[in-house]
From TrEMBL:
One of its GO terms (biological process) is SOS response. Its EC number is 5.6.2.4. One of its GO terms (cellular component) is replisome. Residues 507-528 have a biased composition (Low complexity). InterPro entries: DEAD/DEAH_box_helicase_dom, DNA_helicase_ATP-dep_RecQ, DNA_helicase_ATP-dep_RecQ_bac, Helicase_ATP-bd, Helicase_C-like, HRDC-like_sf, HRDC_dom, HRDC_dom_sf. It comes from the Bacteria. Residues 506-528 are annotated as: Disordered. Belongs to the helicase family. RecQ subfamily. This is DNA helicase RecQ. The keyword Nuclease does not apply.
Amino acid sequence: MEQARKILRQYFGYDSFRKGQESLIGAILNGRDVLGVMPTGAGKSICYQVPAMLMPGVTLVVSPLISLMKDQVDALNAAGIPATYINSSLSARETNDRLRDIYEGQYKLVYIAPERLESERFRGLLRQIRVPLVAVDEAHCVSQWGHDFRPSYMAIVRLLRDIEPRPVMAAFTATATDVVKEDIVERLRLAEPDRVTTGYARDNLSLSVVKNADKRDYIVRFIRERPGQAGIIYASTRREVDGCQQYLAGLGLSVGKYHAGLGEEERAQTQEAFLRDDLQLIVATNAFGMGIDKSNVRFVIHHNMPKNVEAYYQEAGRAGRDGEPGECLLLFSPQDVVTQKFFIEQSEADDERKKNDYRLLNDVVEYAHTSDCLQRSIVRYFGEEGGEPCGRCSNCTDERELRDVTKEAQLVFACVASMKQRFGVTLTAKVLRGANDAKVRQFGFDGLRWYGRMNGSSEKEIVQLIHALVADGYMRLSDSQYPVVLLTEKVRPVLNGEEQVFQRVEPPAAASAGRSRSGSRSSGGASVAPADAALFDRLRALRKEIADREGVPPFVIFHDATLKEMCELRPTTENEMRRVKGIGDAKFAKYGKAFVSLIREYDDA
């Protein structure tokens, strides 16, 4: 591990490993397969990049997106590590040249898409070179029970037949339930792997859920309260992406759009402009962002509820990859559930898969309605103990008084029981509201003693209460297209008068909008003390100038967190600059003197 720490210092500019990294690297160097589950921004790539520098031959990295490969390779080359990628963006000549260079041993890491493993020519090359390590990024894609199953990932295990001796297999993902973890181990045939899960909590993220807001007005207000900050807005359909992007652009905001209906060249140009800070905002479907390496995304807004909690947390995790504060906002409306059910029904999945998809959809609906700490709710979803409330999310910072809704809850539970637990949320709400509805009359529910017992509330309010009671575990929804409400054991003490139920009153739509952090100034990224803001802006401008000249995204030069530390330490000599985290030997040789000179000029002015 001493050699590994030297590599970390020399090439990456850090003196110590983060949580989990040392265990995973040590296991790989000892020839053990590994499964690493680490949140976005926790430094998964270091776990295979450092061993690659210490192991003979070339490490193969299987990665799902072209953009991720290019970003990773740019960053490695900037750090002085020989790396390349092979994918469909290359011409035949470029591919041939790189394959020859791989054979000649000119690279330590080679990134490929899983589809490349179907190429007999590429597999033939692997039989002729030494491959000590195969790293599988976004490994949840191999699982049929994960949120982003990709059949092409099934080709990875066939790779083992072409490499002698068998390489160490290292699988990494940011999110995986226990079922998905077992699926990864089985499908990649990991041999008694060392498993490291560093935890799902992201201490730098603030999670918020806002229900039934005017989404466009809310988003505009949110963005304008964060001038210059980079953000991603996810929408569920191409039509909503187009409409939202046009609306924001019409207000003069710097915003692009990204979805599968656009041409490949246009998508690539938009993503590149966002990575290079030429665009502040992207409105996109979930086709955008998986594996995107832009470190200074300060917020992620979900215009619509995603299909499951895993997808949500993966996408929300694009915020704050640099460890600086990030905000994750989910705008929820009942129509989002209808849209996601339509997607499930239109899919070609079998009945078992659809049932699983409905279960996952119910989980994210529960998340949207829970009164618990949002961070703790997500951590528990992935099978960990929740721990203490985060103190940052919209539920933890909600200052409204709790209201005793025990009486209303008892009415709901009794009504569900009288309806034999065979009907859904909406019909239950209609019965309690006393609606003159044909279906209510058809089943004779207008004769129930509970009919109309909550006629002082609107149907919408009763629906929200039922969902909140489901989210808090008093009831659950069946895993089907038309889920029915089922009672749990948790209702018994409430019905017996032994326990009370409390809920918060639904806030006005703007109540939790844009809580800004006091004592900091937004300057397009990391929070910087006001006295340093001008220097930070000048450092960013220099970084952008160098990045444009070299044709790479700015974060490849230095992350925002590195620029922030320059503002704090004010390095004006080589030794002082080398103490800044994130500056290794190669990066100092390329860029260090320019930044030292700028800081000297700034301090002398």
